[in-house]
Amino acid sequence: MIKVHIGRATSGENEEALVKLINQLRSTIAGRPGYLSSETLKRVEPPGEILVVSKWQSRFYWEQWYASQERLDIQKRIDDLLESETRYEIYEYE
């Protein structure tokens, strides 16, 4: 099993639109092979950063989702709202 930390930074004016797109991604991902769960966290200090922690059965399934056109289409819209590139960090269980 793996967890993927996905970090995104945006200005306050774009935060609501960003959260809507992240929720759209989460709706799209439900039922995908290998997907287990995810949660979305908003940074308190300083504000403007959103972290999604996504849990997968294996890296293989995550990479399938990462390369999917569905995800890429929504991610392009997300990128337009960000102040920096989306960060992806993959962790595995010991």
UniProtKB/TrEMBL annotation:
Q: Which InterPro entries match?
A: ABM_dom (IPR007138), Dimeric_a/b-barrel (IPR011008)
PROSITE patterns xref list: ABM
Q: Which domain of life is it from?
A: Bacteria
Q: Which residues form the ABM domain?
A: 1-90
Name used for this protein in its record? ABM domain-containing protein
